[in-house]
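yo

u said u wanted the structure for the complex thing, so here. seqs first:
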Amino acid sequence: MIEVSGFLGYAVFFLSLAGIYGILALGLNVQWGFTGLFNIGIAGFFAVGAYTAAILTTPPSASHLGGYGLPFLAGAGAAMLLSGLLAVAIGLITLNLRTDYLAIATIGIAEIVRLVFKNEAWLTNGVRGIPGISRPWDAGALGYLGVIVAALLLVYLAIERARRSPWGRVLRAIRENEPAAEAAGKNIFRFRLEAFVFGSMIMGLGGALYAHFVGFISPEAFEPLYGTFLIWVMLIAGGSGNNRGALLGAFLIWLVWSATEIFTSRLPAELVTQAGALRVLLIGLLLQVILLLRPEGLLPEHQPKVKPAPQSKE
Amino acid sequence: MVLADYLQLLSYGIILGSILTLGAIGVSLIFGILGFAHFAHGDLMAVGAYAALTVVVGLNWPIWAAFPFALAATAVVSLVIDQTLYRRLRRTAPVILLISSFGMALILRSVIQLVWGSQDRVYESGIQLPILIGGVAIRPNHIIIVGGSIVLVALLHVFLRHTRMGKAMRAMSDNVDLARISGIDTERVIIWTWILGGALAAAAGIFLAMETRLHPTMGWHMLLPIFAAAILGGIGRPYGAIAGGMVIGIAQEMSTAFWSPAYKPAIAFGLMVLMLIIRPTGLVGARR
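structre next:
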């Protein structure tokens, strides 16, 4: 077991979180980037994944449900399963309605998930949170970074494969022109539901990885800001629809977010309490600038080359 | 619990319902005319509440005198946001506006926090003595909130029914293209939509602050019940928002007789989901 410290330690910490955010951004890319599904309740799926993994893998405790002591992979699998089930429930109700309804429903479910985890102390120990979530296989910080990177790679390869598959093409067809996709005989609702559940399961996996990374989770960590807003900025900045864009966005925005922390921590003492608000303001403005100047993101989605149809003479 | 306790909860429900109605009308108007769910609307309410606080603290005026200034200031803020940001994004898909307004919600909230700090505030300290009517305690503020909301809704009704601009707004809400080819200046309609939406949001925010307290996240927490009210009433239908606001407000307060008050937002959400399953077009019937 190698323990790292100092600058290297910070780099490992930084990259681990960047990797987890990368997984969340990829999950959102399946929903929004490919299919055009507007999920602003990422924090809800993220939290369900994190709490599932925490409850299943921690040793017995009198203060919350748990004590199953299951291995890491079982916890992560269950996290994906439960996030997926939650997505099925929401999707069945909202996916054949307008995008706006899905957006409102997801923000509602994220808020309710947070309320349940905050108030049902028997389940989650309430605001005091669940401590003592250990890293798997006695891994050190560096070893666990390896686990995160491996998971990120797996997710990336799976999504990239899905994107190139006929399934991925149908998703994009639905996003671009729903009536045309329907006329081609595609079951729009089923494809949407599949994409929504697939993306949500990836977010659940991100939650499980996060729980084992920080070792302690409480409802505070799943406020809409960290759980949802940052990931949206990451995907839009990187380029929605492009998996490499999602990863680049996750890395860059996490860099900007971390850099503003270094900057604001040097502010005079009377301003430090305001630092959080200042950072949110900066990221919010950054999003608006991106939307105005480069809405397609740094790495735009590849448009497949289509042979131009022969021009008819009129 | 005896009957008077339920009536007390009902009175709280009507107060909350009045506040939600004012917010939901704005959301519904904006949705009807611009075609997107305005996620910064809750935080626009907070802007109105803090604008009033600025006048109350800065000029030492009573809250009723600060009221019109806060409404005007919030209308200007929403107009500036629209003209500098949303107007440029309107050419793209409506969903981009949705993302932008989500970011705007966080911008507004952090600006409020930077200017006013994150501690709780009130307009005037001290306790108002309640009047007991049939075992139900009613404070003077409650009468102001419900009465003020009725007046504002009545004014809006007159505006929508009897002015040229009001009629143009309803026409554009029904069908943008038809409104445009019949010569309606759609940009002017949009400007008036933001003025009305912003002013009503400010009134809702001030009433909410009078009933509870001011806090930078006060508006964000109202977003879900406001949307639930707008959807319940049929989004895009300002008149439905009145019914939706009252149903959500009363249901949220009455639920505290049976459930932990912590789950109040869940009640709003549950009703909204029920509505989406049974009748997605809302109580009054709306466009899909």
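Residues 42 and 219 of chain B are 4 Å apart (CA to CA). The mean pLDDT of chain B is 88.
cya
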